[in-house]
Amino acid sequence: SSSHAEGAAVAARVERKWAAVAVAIIVLLVAMVVFTGLHWAMMPPSRVETIDPTTLHVSGEFIESNLGSAAETDGSVTVRIVAQQYSFTPQCIVVPANTPITFRVTSADVVHGFLIADTNINSMVEPGYISTFKTSFPESGDHLMPCHEYCGTGHEGMWAHVKVLD
Ligand code: CUA
């Protein structure tokens, strides 16, 4: 009958419409996955290691005697820094020029900012996480290292500096 044929045509149209919607959803999901993957691939590999912020001074990598610059056997230098209201330890970080430098930074209390002037290092340091940044300094000189994340009443006075020696 004609009404049966009409019904089939409507059903086919509805089916095509939903097929198009399903394809659109799949395309959107794939685009989101690709975008997220690219986004993470381009992010510096920071905030992936965890640490107990309440025992930093007592044991482990960030005890006071272990802070500052340390030469590695491969010729690179690792710099360990603790941020806390309202200072960085150490206050003055000395590193050699033209050397691969890895900064490992954590916070003993709240979220702080970590920025080294004239480099692309500009991130946050969160309690409970070790932030890692890799760079090298092509020439000698001083770089300011201010906390740029509001962390309390003493925030404005929270800064250190990086001294690069030839
Ligand atoms: Cu620490 Cu602002």
UniProtKB/TrEMBL annotation:
<dbReference type="InterPro" id="IPR051403">
    <property type="entry name" value="NosZ/Cyto_c_oxidase_sub2"/>
</dbReference>
<keyword id="KW-0472">Membrane</keyword>
<keyword id="KW-0812">Transmembrane</keyword>
<dbReference type="InterPro" id="IPR001505">
    <property type="entry name" value="Copper_CuA"/>
</dbReference>
<dbReference type="GO" id="GO:0005507">
    <property type="term" value="F:copper ion binding"/>
</dbReference>
<dbReference type="InterPro" id="IPR008972">
    <property type="entry name" value="Cupredoxin"/>
</dbReference>
<keyword id="KW-0479">Metal-binding</keyword>
<dbReference type="GO" id="GO:0004129">
    <property type="term" value="F:cytochrome-c oxidase activity"/>
</dbReference>
<dbReference type="Pfam" id="PF00116">
    <property type="entry name" value="COX2"/>
</dbReference>
<feature type="transmembrane region" description="Helical">
    <location>
        <begin position="18"/>
        <end position="38"/>
    </location>
</feature>
<feature type="domain" description="Cytochrome oxidase subunit II copper A binding">
    <location>
        <begin position="74"/>
        <end position="166"/>
    </location>
</feature>
<dbReference type="GO" id="GO:0042597">
    <property type="term" value="C:periplasmic space"/>
</dbReference>
<keyword id="KW-0186">Copper</keyword>
<dbReference type="GO" id="GO:0016020">
    <property type="term" value="C:membrane"/>
</dbReference>
<dbReference type="InterPro" id="IPR002429">
    <property type="entry name" value="CcO_II-like_C"/>
</dbReference>
<keyword id="KW-1133">Transmembrane helix</keyword>
<protein>
    <submittedName>
        <fullName>Cytochrome C oxidase subunit II</fullName>
    </submittedName>
</protein>
